[in-house]
Design goal:
The structure is a homodimer.
Chain A: E1 18-31, E2 34-41, E3 44-50, H1 52-60, E4 68-77, E5 90-101, H2 118-123, H3 125-128, H4 132-154, E6 158-159, E7 177-179, E8 187-189, H5 195-203, E9 208-216, E10 228-237, H6 241-260, E11 269-272, H7 273-280, E12 294-297, H8 319-323, E13 326-332, H9 340-351, E14 361-367, E15 379-383, H10 391-400, E16 408-414, H11 416-433, E17 444-448, E18 453-456, E19 467-470, H12 480-487, E20 511-516, E21 519-526, H13 531-540, H14 545-558, E22 566-572, H15 573-580, H16 611-617, E23 619-621
Parallel strand pairs in A: 3-5, 6-9, 11-17
Antiparallel strand pairs in A: 1-2, 1-4, 2-3, 4-5, 7-8, 9-10, 10-22, 12-13, 13-16, 14-15, 14-16, 17-20, 18-19, 20-21, 21-22
Helix pairs in contact in A: 4-6, 4-15, 13-14
Chain lengths: 624, 624
Amino acid sequence: MYRSHTCGELRSNQVGQTVTLAGWVQTVRKFGSITFVDLRDRYGITQLLFGEELNKVLDENPLGREFVLQVTGAVSERSNKNANIATGDIEIIVQSFNVLNKSAVPPFTIQDDTDGGDDLRMKYRFLDLRRNAVKRNIELRYAVNRAARNYLHGNGFMDIETPFLIKSTPEGARDFVVPSRMNPGQFYALPQSPQTFKQLLMVSGYDRYYQVVKCFRDEDLRADRQPEFTQIDCEMAFVEQEDILNMFEGMIKSIFKEVKNIDYTEAVERMTWEEAMWQYGNDKPDIRFEMKICNLKFPAHTFPAKQSQSVLIDGADFKVFDEAETVVAIAVPGCSEYTRKQTDELTEWVKRPQVGMKGMVFIKCLPAEASAQEGNTGITFKSSVDKFYSEEKLKAIAEATNAKAGDLILILAGAEERTRKAISDLRMYMADKLSLRKAEDFKLLWVLDFPLFEFALEDQDGGGAGRWVARHHPFTSPKPPHIETMINNSPKVDDLDKYLEHPYAGIKANAYDMVLNGNEIGGGSIRIYQRELQEKMFAALGMNAEEQLHKFGFLLGAFEYGAPPHGGIAFGFDRLCAILGGSESIRDFIAFPKNNSGRDVMLDAPSAIDTKQFDELQIKLNLK
Amino acid sequence: MYRSHTCGELRSNQVGQTVTLAGWVQTVRKFGSITFVDLRDRYGITQLLFGEELNKVLDENPLGREFVLQVTGAVSERSNKNANIATGDIEIIVQSFNVLNKSAVPPFTIQDDTDGGDDLRMKYRFLDLRRNAVKRNIELRYAVNRAARNYLHGNGFMDIETPFLIKSTPEGARDFVVPSRMNPGQFYALPQSPQTFKQLLMVSGYDRYYQVVKCFRDEDLRADRQPEFTQIDCEMAFVEQEDILNMFEGMIKSIFKEVKNIDYTEAVERMTWEEAMWQYGNDKPDIRFEMKICNLKFPAHTFPAKQSQSVLIDGADFKVFDEAETVVAIAVPGCSEYTRKQTDELTEWVKRPQVGMKGMVFIKCLPAEASAQEGNTGITFKSSVDKFYSEEKLKAIAEATNAKAGDLILILAGAEERTRKAISDLRMYMADKLSLRKAEDFKLLWVLDFPLFEFALEDQDGGGAGRWVARHHPFTSPKPPHIETMINNSPKVDDLDKYLEHPYAGIKANAYDMVLNGNEIGGGSIRIYQRELQEKMFAALGMNAEEQLHKFGFLLGAFEYGAPPHGGIAFGFDRLCAILGGSESIRDFIAFPKNNSGRDVMLDAPSAIDTKQFDELQIKLNLK
């Protein structure tokens, strides 16, 4: 061993001991005839003192940043103690040293606030990983991994490895494929998830399975997507939805405790998918703050259980609202004093192509201090639609949005899907602006009762347009009362415009997502375990019998030999770590990530391969 | 939850409780008007008793093997206790039951001694996995995984995930490659091991790394090889060989304790590679038994430190020995009474093409009981070469082999490499025959000081013939005293026949293998960490500067920025599990293995892919 101690462990009670340390030179500070060096390793930083004699040696062979150094010396009490670091009470009076390796001048500083740009740091990721900020992320990732494993082990789960070279069954996302040299013309696929394998394990009787496992999806990379990513993948047999929710909120709470020392003792909130869409405009709401949506107008077939309150806006001859399918509002706290410039900026923001609104209506709920008299509400309203709506009407709208004095009501109008998404985006935008989304506040939520199907009006993945697609995946079970609906109805949709009126549109899935701070961190479902229902499901998705057997014959076969009821969940491990680490970028929590073109710029991969490799694989390029 | 208890947990102190169980029907036994059912799950088997009333229901809807059943009933003391199973004191008097799923008649019996052939069990692997014998293996695998992780965690190692989509750098084995859709014409490779990444992590300062990780090699599959396999992969910085040996024999001992409850307290034996070849004829000797090789004749340049004792066989005019490069013998205990038929069989065995000997000489060391007199050795010798060697000569040979009365000495002669391998094979064959290789005896061994290079007289992997190849891998450091030899000599070999006289042939590596019961379970090395030496190494292997930069530029670059001394090891996880489980077949310890053609017969993978996939990847087939 090149060291007797690490650079993070010496304290004043070790003063007088002779120790050997090894690590990297963080800084060199020369004061006259002595030199101080901060020596860094994974565990911390220790100050070294080179006295006059050794200083002469250093003069001839200067130490540079990131040199690898081994020193032996005596632990000594510091005169100038540094309370900022754990070893700040001591220093090492160096007796002898050995440069184990030199270093060129690093292309950026190895510090929390580095001067290196993103591309440079990715190219030299091995240096970026030395930075304390990155190291903390990697350590947090390991702590989450360890906490999850310990919890699952304690609850009788077994880590069982599933294969990586499997069969290509393109459903939804694209597979990465691997040509087989031994079976020319044939290809393996890399798993998008171990879904069917974990279900087979349930059929095999391994009733509690888990894996922390790499998965692969060949998607066009949006920001913060990686072609390879990690899941905490779990499955249980002989369970109902309630069992899974309890087990896995237990896991997340255990991770909170182990990793962040947070006692998350409160019950995890639950919300139906419909309620999430109604109140927050999306299926993974951040519920750390309010600003719930006020639905002034909405399509009745989308929310059949809700009562219209469009009387609040009707009859004012305001065409924008009258002609819109959906009119939704949020009351933003404390922004009633926004200037014209500020409201204009918000209007510009919602008009950006990514949001896609044509405009925005606002109502300022001004605290009417000056004019406040007995019997007055204490608010005066000022809006961008004053000429259409009387003060009384504005007041009624404000009451519907639960606005208080000082709030700014923002209203969007347009087609349902786009408008709802826009108000949801606007809500998050305002929350960020008002610092309502604090990285160290954590709030969990279960979203339940998702629709089983979505209707693809346009072709999504080559399966054709005008058909049902699985919202979660084709193995998700319908809610028990909806199984009949599924079995007794043909999936055929005659009038594409009225797909929402088809019985399948109302079928709810036995599926659940876990949401943390507005991010989906996990999702799962109770699975189909009967061959007939699974066949019906495949058929509903447009797969004929031959295709079903070709792609999933092994699973249908397995269901004939005593498949138990089962269900599971998969957590996005990278995302979970990022949120726990107070970041929304998963890349920061992956040791060797790829960029947005799927490239590893450090390795320079992917890259060309040899002619010999093409020959052996019996494939060739067919570049367009 | 479909159950209140598992099928393995009820005991007589729970008699009287009402419980709900769920599991699979193992057996149905009808006795008049009552029926006994053995219900099985992952945890055990519980006997169910269906009384007269329910029996009538069963008559109409009979239960079959592997039906999935949920029952509620009272725990009752059994009159006929079964001491063979943990729940044998009780049974459940069924009050109500629910068939959760039916099962077709399984294609083979779900029992330890199944009637299913290998192919059938692989096709229905999800049923095979239900068998207790297989389940025990999968459980053992998880226990080993868990024990290794706990040990490593306890010693400050961090699990850090390395990427699966990397750069193809064919060295030795073939890479599996993955076409990149987003980078047309370019390919990722799947890692043969995370070697370079774990070294980069050391450069990054994460001084103790581990991973239980899938690796991929596109090799022609020999028996018991898998294209994807799992390693326990580890690396440490600031260590020397001795530190690694201590750390990882600690890990294996800890696994022995946790998994098998074996206190492996003795020191792990160590042996140089040369000594292993000398005494056992191979580099992974099974040292649970003796039968060491007696080297009657050997090439001096192969074992320069050893003294010749060919005087024992010289001068007898026995051409087979006189003309052979190598003559080696083993003394097989207790086989002196072998019949002519038995020795003939052994001769046939060594003449098989896989062994490749031309013949075999034997000497029987017969206990001379009848003729035993004072002063006599008590042994008479009878050999297949009596006409060449006198009794005295035979006695001298026998003494050299350490043969005792009752032993059978077997002698092989021929070219060095083949003969040494043959005697090693024969030694193992005889040990199996004599039951000296007991699955529950475990003996560890470190083999050290491997040669750094091998000389490829013939082309192995397209790199050309007549060149040095890395015995371990190109990142292995030479022993410190041999670094000079490497730097100061050109790798060029002028006379291929005399490659053993080239200075490179004598360079030893800082490498080590861990051997368990004659199987290599782990191997590793202290790594090169200086750019210059790494370049010299690449050059010695025939890689020019351009190639070096193209393939390993990132690593050479990393070595410029303060790479610490480091080393590591990787354990073959599948193999380790198999040996601990008393088997030599790794396939039995993998949940979903592939067959010898690299096929998953359950999935039917690999398989053809869609035209659309070819189009998107911009590749096409080029079948010969």
